[in-house]
Amino acid sequence: MKNENENLEKQLTIGRNSLARDFKNYDPSTIQTSAEIMKQRRDDDSLRDLNFATGIALYTLADDRTVNLSIAKIGTVLNNDNLADFCHALMTDNFYRPSARMVDRVLSDDSTFTINDLYEANVFEPVMCDWFSSDTGTGLYLEMAIKTDAHNNLSEEQRALAEAVYGSGDDFERNMEMLSDVGIKTTAISTLHPYKIKKKHW
Predict the structure, then answer these.
(1) Which of 31, 101, 108, 179 gets the most CB atoms within 10 Å of its CB?
(2) Residues 52, 74 contacting (CB under 8 angstroms)
(3) Residues ≥6 apart with Cβ < 8 Å to 87
(4) For the chain, what are the domain ranges?
């Protein structure tokens, strides 16, 4: 058992250092947002089958009952100062608790989209999913489904969130049309339920 633990720690250390080293070859400001990639997909259909993750969900507590959700660009969260800690946290606990200084920086960035009082805004539905959580086999998460050919039915709050992810104005309309044209009738924005995070980490 001791040898197994030592081997696991060695693997985690190698993986953590490798991720941190490789990321330093990139300029965080060049990491595209999902809205930018969606726009490229309209012109290059070879990109439409590729998966990508370009945003980071950040939960903050205004008080014991009020949870705010911010969608931030990766480049505003990760930098060479915190990348090693970030990689270590994800590889050992699947969770990263940012410093207060980082939170302030992310929330003050013009590109960050924030929903104040997540539950009151009522933009998500709680859903159980078998693949979302590795520790229990089933995870509770939040999802906002968007019908690509009926997206005008979104509430004002839902539309604001959808445009933060899929592009705003005419870009949003054209991106929904593109998804619908290729047979994707429903797309979704998902994030881990704050209750699950609070129960385990706060």
Answers:
(1) 179
(2) no
(3) 15, 16, 19, 20
(4) 2-201
pLDDT for residue 98:
79
Is the separation of the CB atoms in 56 and 79 below 8 Å? Answer: no
Which residues have CB under 8 Å from 146's CB, separation 6+?
154, 158, 162, 166, 176, 186, 187, 188, 189
* The pLDDT of residue 186 is above 60: yes
CA–CA gap between residue 138 and residue 132 (Å, rounded): 7
Which residue bears the tokens 């385990």?
200
Beta strand 67-73 with 186-192 is unpaired
Higher pLDDT, 124 or 77: 124
Q: Which residue has the higher pLDDT, 182 or 92?
A: 182
pTM, whole model, 2 decimals? Answer: 0.74
> Which residues are CB-contacts of 83 (< 8 A; sequence separation ≥ 6)?
19, 20, 23, 24
Alpha helix stretches (DSSP H) within the chain: 2-23, 34-43, 74-77, 83-93, 100-108, 118-121, 156-166, 170-181, 194-201
- Six-digit token string for 99: 């410093």
The dihedrals phi and psi of 188, each to the nearest 5 degrees, come to -150, 150
Residue where the block lists tokens 């013009």: 110
